[in-house]
Amino acid sequence: TEKVCHLSLCPLGTAAAPEQELLCIFGTGDLGRSLGQRLLQTGYRVVYGSRRPHSCGPLPERAQVMSHAAAAQSANLVFICIHRENYDFLETLAPELKGKVLVDVSNNVEKNLYPEANAEYLQRLIPGAHVVKAFNTLSAWALQNGPSDANRQVYLCGNNAEAKQAVSVVATKLGFTVLDRGSVSAAKELEDFPLQLFPEWRLPLRLAVGLTAFFFFYLLIRDIISVYIKEKKDISFRIMVSLANKVFPIVSLIMLSLCYLPGVIAAFLQLYRGTKYKRFPDWLDRWMLCRKQLGLLALGFAFLHVLYTLIIPIRYYVRFRLSAITVSEVRDSLTAGESLCLMQ
Ligand SMILES: NC(=O)C1=CN([C@@H]2O[C@H](COP(=O)(O)OP(=O)(O)OC[C@H]3O[C@@H](n4cnc5c(N)ncnc54)[C@H](OP(=O)(O)O)[C@@H]3O)[C@@H](O)[C@H]2O)C=CC1
Ligand SMILES: [Fe+3]
User: Fold this and answer.
1) 226-246, pLDDT tens digit by residue?
2) Ligand 1 atom 30: the closest Cα is on which residue?
3) Ligand 1: residue whose CA is nearest its atom 19
4) Which one of 191, 228, 246, 290 has the minimum C-beta count within 10 Å?
């Protein structure tokens, strides 16, 4: 109530800004800098903890830099923007970090590099702190530029509900949507996220490549190589357009049917079982989950088919024009020759 009275008594514009919360960032690297800049823009105060407070690279204006211990003491929330390989020194800061919320943003370069998740390791190093895994699925670039449609979500997990709440308040203020994934045992999963490149596309893409290769070679043997062997006719110029244009619609239709088939199978399965409250078998589950990708790929192949179909008449037209020109020129020269003969 004190704040409200204070604000309402003040004339417009001179209201004292409420004390901004101070947040701490360990590490003055790429991510630390981007995160700090974003936090400052959102209205937080930022203090960096660094090994070399006086000689670190360029930092956002208005940010303070101090030693790790001093920085840790001044804030309740500490973002650890340091690679996991260098975490070990944090153990010596355990007294300063006791009771603080530590945000682990780290990623690994490959899966299963370490037996435990980075966040669990951090928690083991500093048992007295509350570790929250968050922000690791964002890039420094995305953080600096603020949330966009593709980068809206911040996944977080941790054992302490209050600590998670504190982090999600910050994330929300930064403009992100928070998705709570549960306790720190989910950290491993979160750390694997950035290492999966469009996982749901992998199977459909492999399928598309496989089908394309299969039908390409099948048609190559059937339409071109066999003609060459039987009739000694070389029609290999057809490979680029005509043959390809036979492969595209076939693959497109197969992918389209694969997109709709699992739904039908699932419906029959439900009818057969007499209930829809039972899990589908794993293969069907996986198949159902990539229907969107299968459909989009089918659309892509259909589009290629349209494109190639439009190219073929253009090619014939050019050939027709060329031969028409040749014929008329031959005719002209012939008539010229005839008239020459007549004159003689
Ligand atoms: N860059 C990105 O896009 C993303 C990065 N991350 C994670 O954020 C973390 C930091 O990444 P990033 O900023 O790119 O890395 P950088 O290499 O740019 O920065 C790491 C910082 O850690 C500190 N540091 C380095 N070595 C040690 C050490 N031996 N002891 C103590 N501190 C050390 C340094 O700060 P100082 O000199 O001030 O001590 C350094 O600036 C990583 O865990 C990474 O996985 C997560 C998502 C995206
Ligand atoms: Fe067609």
Assistant:
1) 888 898 888 877 788 888 999
2) 86
3) 29
4) 228
Q: Which atom of ligand 1 approaches the CA of 33 most closely?
A: 13
Pocket residues for ligand 1 (CB within 6 Å)? 27-32, 50-52, 56, 81-84, 86, 89, 105-107, 136, 139-140
Task: Kindly give the distance from the C-alpha atom of residue 19 to the centroid of ligand 2, in angstroms, as a whole number.
Answer: 68
Q: Torsion over CA of 181, 24, 173 and 120, rounded to 10 degrees? A: 0
Torsion sign, CA atoms 215, 219, 222, 224: negative
Task: Express each pLDDT in 303-341 by its tens digit.
Answer: 999 999 988 777 777 778 888 888 888 888 877 776 666
pLDDT of residue 142: 83
Question: Domain extents for the chain?
Answer: 2-195, 199-343
* SS (HEC) of 75-94: CCEEEECCCHHHHHHHHHHH
Q: How far apart are CA 219 and CA 231, in angstroms?
A: 17
Element holding 130 (H helix, E strand): strand 130-134
167 touches 134 (CB < 8 A): yes
Could you report the predicted ipTM of this complex, rounded to two decimals? 0.95
162 C-alpha to ligand 1 centroid (Å): 26
The answer to pTM > 0.80 is no
Tell me the C-alpha to C-alpha distance, in Å, between residue 141 and each of 32, 34, 57, 82. 11, 7, 17, 17
Mean pLDDT of 270-276: 91
The Cα–Cα gap between 228 and 83 comes to 61
Which atom of ligand 1 approaches the CA of 68 most closely? 39
- Which residues, 6 or more positions from 310, have their beta carbon under 8 angstroms from its beta carbon? none
Atom 17 of ligand 1: nearest residue by CA position: 29
| The architecture CATH gives domain 2-195 | 3-Layer(aba) Sandwich (3.40)
